[in-house]
Design goal:
single chain; alpha+beta; DNA Polymerase III, Chain A, domain 2; 8-stranded antiparallel β-sheet; 43% strand; elongated
Length: 370
């Protein structure tokens, strides 16, 4: 393998694919990126077994070949080299020589055959979705994805593709975000698929432009082809919880607040909350409504009055301030509606005005007050 290329071009493409490389894997090869030269094309491939990313671009190819290169060390040296052309040459015993200006650097690579192969997917169904719509659905729901690896079904976003609509849902058991787009139609695939968060975070970076993205869905994988970059991911093969049964049907007590004012109040009051539970007390009343907290460990406390439109029975509800703030930041309207029932039941949180052809619903579970 032998080629030359602009340092900036190689660095930008390596930074892109290195987001997939695993840092915790017991397989050392996954800390590498596979370089593969064919003619005047260089392909970079990274994998963590679950996700594979390949990007291809032009170089001055001198000799074909492939080699797995440790990603951290080559990224570090590329960041320090001045903006100029570099030359990379690999010997048959896996020694990589990188030359730039007056410098020469040696890196030990691994045989390309050791690197995980590209997933083979068959029986593909294509789902085409507008970039802005898909990006919005991902950003809205991804905040509620669980980080608990013992609950794999909750570590991704559920997409329900229908003939005349598409729904995305995420939950971690404490909060739930549901978004239903009615301005979508699918001519081919219909069904449910749970897509891992890591893949969705990679995809978001390509959805800020006009156009359509085609998701190729098979029984076990999703593939997306983005110009010169291809990303594969395994589907989370688990049953997603029955989220519809979690959405309360009898929350008739409405509290309406200014989103920014409520976020600001929560930010100030939560400074004094317990750093583990982030517990705050939310008093809703016809008279004076308040947000307060008391940390028993440090004896610190805070209380602020808030302006609420509320005309029902007084209640005091406990919430995790961080969860509530994240949900409120998901609201784009000036005012938010909180639909309540009792201090021990879930709260429905909605924008005061829904976007056209969209239904955004968020659920937050209360926490028991000390």
């Amino acid at each position: 393998m032998h080629f030359s290329i602009s340092k900036n071009v190689l660095l930008s493409n390596m930074q892109k694919v290195s987001k997939v490389s695993s840092t915790k894997s017991t397989m050392p090869i996954l800390n590498s990126i596979l370089f593969e030269v064919e003619g005047n094309n260089l392909s970079l491939r990274s994998s963590d077994i679950e996700i594979t990313m390949i990007t291809t671009f032009n170089v001055n190819g001198i000799e074909n070949g492939n080699l797995a290169v440790p990603s951290r060390i080559i990224l570090d040296i590329l960041n320090e080299i001045e903006d100029e052309n570099i030359e990379i040459k690999a010997s048959s015993d896996g020694v990589i020589n990188l030359t730039a200006g007056k410098g020469s650097y040696e890196i030990i690579g691994r045989p390309g055959e050791e690197f995980p192969s590209i997933p083979v997917i068959t029986d593909i169904s294509n789902v085409e979705i507008d970039n802005k719509m898909l990006g919005r659905m991902i950003k809205k729901t991804i905040i509620a994805v669980s980080k608990d690896e013992l609950k794999p079904s909750l570590t991704g976003v559920l997409f329900q593709v229908k003939k005349d609509g598409i729904i995305s849902v995420a939950t971690d058991g404490h909060r739930l975000v549901y978004i239903n787009r009615k301005d979508f139609s699918s001519e081919g695939f219909e069904g449910d698929v749970i897509i891992p968060t890591k893949f969705l975070n990679l995809l978001i970076g390509y959805l800020d432009r006009d156009g359509v993205t085609s998701l190729a869905i098979s029984e076990n994988h999703v593939k997306v082809d983005l110009d010169s970059t291809i990303i594969y991911t395994r589907i989370i093969d688990e049953k997603f919880p029955d989220y519809e049964s979690v959405i309360p049907l009898n929350n008739e007590r409405l509290a309406i607040a200014n989103v920014n004012n409520l976020i600001s109040t929560l930010r100030r009051v939560s400074i004094f909350s317990n750093k583990t539970t982030h517990q705050i007390s939310f008093l809703v009343s016809k008279e004076v409504s308040k947000v307060s907290t008391l940390d028993q460990e440090t004896r610190s406390s805070a209380e602020e009055e808030i302006e609420l439109e509320y005309n029902d029975e007084e209640m005091v509800i406990g919430y995790n301030a961080e969860y509530l703030r994240e949900i409120l930041r998901n609201i784009e309207t000036e005012r938010v509606i909180m639909k309540l029932n009792s201090p021990i039941s879930a709260c429905i949180i909605l924008p005061k005005v829904q976007q056209e052809n969209e239904d955004l619903t968020m659920i937050l579970m209360p926490i028991r007050l000390n």
